[in-house]
Design a protein that fits this description.
This protein has 309 residues and is α/β, with parallel strands linked by helices. It is built from 10 helices and 13 strands. The chain has helices at 40-47, 90-101, 106-114, 130-142, 160-175, 187-193, 211-217, 230-239, 259-268, 282-291; strands at 2-11, 14-24, 29-33, 55-60, 75-78, 148-152, 179-183, 196-201, 204-210, 222-226, 243-246, 252-255, 275-280. The chain has a 6-stranded mixed sheet, sandwiched between helices. It has a 4-stranded antiparallel sheet with strand order 11-12-10-13. A 3-stranded antiparallel sheet has the order 2-1-4, with helices on one face. The radius of gyration is 22 Å and the shape is globular. The structure holds adenosine-5'-triphosphate. Adenosine-5'-triphosphate binds next to strand 2 and helix 1. InterPro entries: AAA+_ATPase, ABC_transporter-like_ATP-bd, ABC_transporter-like_CS, P-loop_NTPase. Residues 2-227 form the ABC transporter domain. This is ABC-2 type transport system ATP-binding protein.
Length: 309
């Protein structure tokens, strides 16, 4: 369990985190969302004792990070996949962490196997791809078999197989009763993985809500549809109260209905489909609506906050 109360951090004139209070519960995957500069990384760093709060508290299993007797056995984190020394091998990097964290060396081979790096365990980290470094970072997070996991953009650099793997891993970790807090800018990824969502903007909590509730609130996103009978399809969808607009190469962008419903409507009218692709997920639509007042940088506009000095 992670508990954050009145957590505040200012850097000079910039209020990066502003009186945040929330709990992250065990047994579910909790997504941590916010526009660029919202304060997600700063919050995660304070939970991990890497930054001192200006005021307020963040505790892990009831204690501040610095008061945890064996931190890596309580909380594991993926923050910066570039953190491993390039000259070390994957195994020696993990052995070094295990030694410092009071973890038995045999655990190193277990986590290497878990993340699929056993075959390259003896290779230097400097030659690793971003995806391999990401897997190594996840191995490091899991090393102490912690009850709490904090993952910042874990799908970065992973290929489609890797993305499916991390999705399954996060679900498994939560199903084992662990606390999993994960940040990502990929809304479709979040929607597929997170059960609960914390949304912050300009350092403040905007929403602390179940994924199902959040995505049912707003519109259902937009779906790109292609068909050789596009006009018949457009009129069928409009008849079902969808919003329909023309898109590139004779396709349609359909709002107000999800892909499954559009498929059913087309089938009922025997209209063949050539493409049926969600473009903007319902989570993305809800996120945009929630954070519209708190984006720090907007395309075509100047930043509304001073840059850090
Ligand atoms: N070390 C620092 N010194 C000064 N300002 C900082 C520092 N770290 C973060 N900030 C500022 O604090 C605010 C929050 O930044 P933070 O990196 O926590 O946001 P974020 O939500 O993680 O953003 P992103 O999605 O872009 O990673 C930003 O305005 C940022 O410029």
């Amino acid at each position: 369990m992670i508990r954050v109360r009145g957590l505040t951090k200012s850097y000079g004139g910039t209020l990066a985190v502003d009186r945040l209070s929330f709990d992250v519960a065990p047994g579910v995957v909790t997504g941590f969302l916010g526009p660029n500069g919202a304060g997600k990384s700063t919050t995660m760093r304070m939970i991990l004792g890497l930054d001192a709060p200006t005021s307020g508290t963040a505790t892990v299993n009831g204690r501040r990070y610095r008061d945890l007797p064996a931190p890596i056995q309580e909380i594991g984190a993926l923050l910066d996949p570039g953190a491993a020394h390039p000259g070390r091998t994957a195994r020696s990097h993990l052995l070094w962490l295990a030694h410092g964290g009071g973890v038995r060396p045999r655990r190193v081979d277990e986590v290497l196997d878990l993340v699929g790096l056993s075959a390259v365990a003896g290779r230097r980290v400097g030659g690793f791809s971003l995806g391999m470094r990401q897997r190594l970072g996840i191995a490091a997070a899991l090393l102490g078999d912690p009850r709490v996991l904090l993952l910042d953009e874990p799908v970065n650099g992973l290929d489609p197989e890797g993305i499916l793997w991390i999705r399954g891993l996060m679900r498994d970790l939560a199903a084992q009763g662990r606390t999993v807090l994960v940040s990502s800018h990929l809304m479709n990824e979040m929607q597929a993985t997170a059960d609960h969502v914390l949304v912050i903007g300009r350092g403040r909590l905007i929403a602390d809500v179940g994924m199902a509730e959040l995505t049912a609130r707003g519109d259902s996103g937009e779906v790109l549809v292609a068909s050789p009978h596009i006009e018949a399809l457009a009129s069928a969808l409009t008849g079902e109260h969808a919003s329909v607009r023309a898109a590139e190469n004779g396709t349609l962008l359909v709002g107000g209905l999800d892909a499954a419903r559009i498929g059913e409507i087309a089938l009922a009218r025997r209209i063949p489909l050539r493409e049926l692709t969600p473009r903007r997920t319902s989570l993305e639509a809800a996120f945009m609506e929630l954070t519209s007042d708190s984006v720090e940088h907007r395309s075509g506009q100047h930043a509304t906050q001073g840059s850090p000095s």
